[in-house]
Design goal:
This protein has helices spanning 5-23, 60-63, 158-161, 217-220, 223-230, 254-259, and strands at residues 35-43, 49-57, 69-70, 74-77, 80-83, 92-94, 100-111, 125-128, 142-144, 149-151, 167-169, 179-182, 188-195, 200-203, 206-209. By secondary structure, it is an alpha+beta fold.
């Protein structure tokens, strides 16, 4: 029996459609936003210290508030060096100008530097061996987090910033000998601190900055995430409460913003 042409055409169309569907690219599922647990200690106005735990996005602006100093880093205080993990809000640290300033906030986070996140990004650490920047700079070697900045300008950036004091990511000084990138495959606890004002403190003999989100913070974070971010800091109510930067920073636009 002869198959009607309409049925034959329909069969051909079905076969062609099935083949097209097999060849068509499948929609790629949008990766879910990775979350991270952040530990916070804050000094309240009444003098009490509160410790809180937050679940927030693993975004650079959030992580940078916690990822400067590794456990065992020695912060200079008026009573001598103190390990960063032992430093608490209410304690005082010595700043670059010799003043004694109270710690208002300390944050910590645990991450695996060598493990890629949902976007394929890793968070390498930087190891600085003893005496790399001069006698006792650092004193016995230091491992800094990805958000750590120190006072200084590496050779390859001097044509941009000259010899003026500037805060530079410590990773910019990596040279494969005295300053080395390292990505441990095991969890690492990282810390950062806030004072009343943005400052430079001495850690292991090097001059590091205290936490500040930067002058471009308003443009870096969406309005919907701003309240989540501010909730990490009990001592401030708005991004402006961080105050001005002590000195310019290299690498994220602050130079242009401060001199415009």
């Amino acid at each position: 029996m002869t198959i009607p042409s309409s049925l034959a055409r329909a069969a051909r169309n079905a076969i062609e459609t099935t083949a097209m569907l097999r060849e068509a690219p499948r929609p790629v599922a949008k990766p879910k936003a990775q979350l991270r647990r952040y530990e916070v200690s804050s000094l309240l106005k009444n003098g009490n210290v509160v410790q809180t735990r937050h679940i927030a996005p693993a975004l650079p602006m959030f992580e940078d508030a916690f990822c400067a100093f590794t456990r065992g880093s020695l912060v200079e205080t008026e009573h001598g060096p103190m390990a960063i993990e032992d430093l608490m809000p209410g304690d005082t640290v010595l700043t670059q100008d010799g003043a004694s300033e109270t710690v208002l906030w300390k944050g910590s986070v645990t991450l695996i530097p060598g493990r890629p996140d949902s976007r394929g990004r890793t968070r390498p650490l930087t190891r600085v061996t003893a005496d790399t920047f001069g006698m006792q700079k650092p004193m016995s070697g230091v491992i800094a987090g990805p958000a750590a900045r120190i006072v200084g300008t590496p050779t390859h950036l001097r044509h941009l910033y000259g010899n003026d004091p500037i805060l530079t990511p410590v990773s910019e000084f990596q040279d494969g000998t005295g300053v080395i990138e390292t990505m441990p495959p095991t969890p690492v606890e990282l810390f950062h601190i806030c004072l009343k004002r943005h400052s430079v403190i001495r850690v292991d003999g090097l001059q590091f900055e205290t936490y500040h989100p930067g002058v471009n913070a308003v443009r870096m974070i969406s309005h919907s995430l701003r309240s989540v971010y501010l909730n990490l800091f009990a001592h401030i109510e708005s991004l402006n409460d961080f105050g001005p930067l002590l000195m310019p920073r290299a690498g994220d636009g602050e130079i242009d913003a401060m001199t415009a």
